[in-house]
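Sorry, I am new here, but would you mind making up a protein's amino acid sequence and the tokens describing how it folds?
***
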Amino acid sequence: MTNRYVYGITDGEPVEFETDAVGGADRVYTVSHRRLNAVVSDIDTTDPEETDEDAQRHDDVLREIMDRDGVPGIVPMQFGMAFESDRELKNVLRGARPAFRRALNDVEGRIELGLKIVREEDADVDGDALENAVEDALDPIAAQSVPNDLFSDRLVLNRSYLVDRDARGQFDEAIADLEEEYDDLMFRYTGPFAPYSFVDVTIGAQR
């Protein structure tokens, strides 16, 4: 397994640990260039198949990195980013360095949290009023927020929030207050996740 599968980019301490990684690998480590660390594992292809098992391993590795001391933030990569060599990967890090630096500054010390609010089948909900109430409660705590698709008729609100780790407790309390106020609605509060919704850096292997 000579190729490098990339989970994300950090600028903290290099990491190395054993875990169940994508493609059957059992070790995660970093490939570094000028204080940018690509978190990788070895893989035998540059075009990995996105199975449910490997997609979960990808997310699990990102969560483990986020929980480690010395890693202030991570710019997550979408599933499937793999390179043929360290040299190729370092060339990409060099070319995208300004974009990664900006993204890392945005997500340092922060996590992504998700909120979906679902109504009962025949319930009549004032979506605008609810959205305003949620905005008033959560936006002052969050660093950023973005809307997601309302993929179901019953889904009244679907947003992702970028929240300082230190503000997580305050955010949890605000969610609990909203749930109590709108006890006729179902709240699906998820996370923490790597901040996929708040970075826009795409890298690709040069072949």
User: Anything to note?
Assistant: Helices lie at 52-66, 86-95, 97-107, 127-138, 168-181.
